[in-house]
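Entry, Tuesday afternoon. Goal for today is a structural model of the target with adenosine-5'-diphosphate bound, before we commit to ordering more compound. Inputs were pasted exactly as handed over by J.K., no edits. I checked the ligand SMILES twice against the vendor sheet because last time a stereocentre got dropped in transcription.
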Amino acid sequence: MNTKNQHTLQISTLLNGKYKILKILGHGGFGITYQAQHIYLAEKQVVVKEFFLSGKCVRGNDSLDVQTQGISQNEFENFKKRFLTEAQILSKLKNVPHTLEVSDFFEENNTGYLVMPFVEAEDLGKYLSKQPENRISEKEALAYFAQIATALEAIHKANILHRDIKPANILIGKNGEAYLIDFGAAREFIAEGISQTMTAILTPGYAPLEQYDEHAKRGVTMDIYAMGALLYRMLMGKTPMAAVSRVNAVLVPPMGISTHVSAVIMKAMDMDVVNRFQTVGEMRAVLEGEQKLEIADGVAETQWIEGANGLIVKKEKDKEDSFWLEYIIIPLFFILIIMAFILTTFRGCSE
Ligand SMILES: Nc1ncnc2c1ncn2[C@@H]1O[C@H](COP(=O)(O)OP(=O)(O)O)[C@@H](O)[C@H]1O
Ligand SMILES: [Mg+2]
């Protein structure tokens, strides 16, 4: 995307006296992403992320300054402060595998910026959409999953949630190396269970139901849900049903893949927070077979059939079982009791 709209900075604009904009990579809800060149370190290409709230920020024609629209300057300052605090927290995370280190952050043009290394890569969303049936093999999916899980475990340890894990926020390098990016939605969290006002930023299909509630308790289980959805997307070739739709419908467990992997996806994507894996490490250990998944009786053998709208599920085995029980075994049992009763009465009378 090398387009300029009225809001993006011009190509060649110099930021912080050293980052020269080369290209516009994207505009999300929170900001605009630019590819840039470090002018003193000729070899160094970077990505600069500008804090620019979509629909709430504009840029004047004669100034690079960001102006607000529909929110007060005070509110904007608060968000900007959060963005910069987050950049600062991220910049302290050193050597986290499979993430890109925030190497710099600064304020300019009445907004905030963060800088990270540029990598030659394609985002997983685009990559998946080019594959036959929009999906990849279990082997390949599990390899990406393991890398992203490594990154996520480390950031969770640092008390940071990602909250927007999805294929578009994962970069795949030429050698198959995966990077988790776009911590734009990440917010520091202090402890599991603390309820705080959050901005509702979410991607349907990947966000659990509680993420739709700005005041919900937040925790690592939000990212666990998205990790389940990520596996689903990679293996099934489509985004799973949005959590809000699942309130009135059943998500069909993924079919045509290992039952074990399917069970892991369903546990990670459980609507109930307490039934999900509680840590990324736990999810990974079960997925990789180091730990067994405790599956409730009957769940493992359940046969699911995808019905209309991709919704409904029926357990044929159950149907058969209940048919025998309801129409054959129970009536037969009663007939036998009645016959035994008649026989004993008849014998009693004849004696
Ligand atoms: N460090 C990076 N190196 C290379 N490309 C990147 C990098 N960071 C982001 N991109 C590209 O820019 C796109 C948008 O970046 P992202 O951080 O996801 O912002 P947003 O979703 O807010 O637009 C990504 O999908 C990816 O293609
Ligand atoms: Mg993104």
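The longest strand covers residues 19-27.
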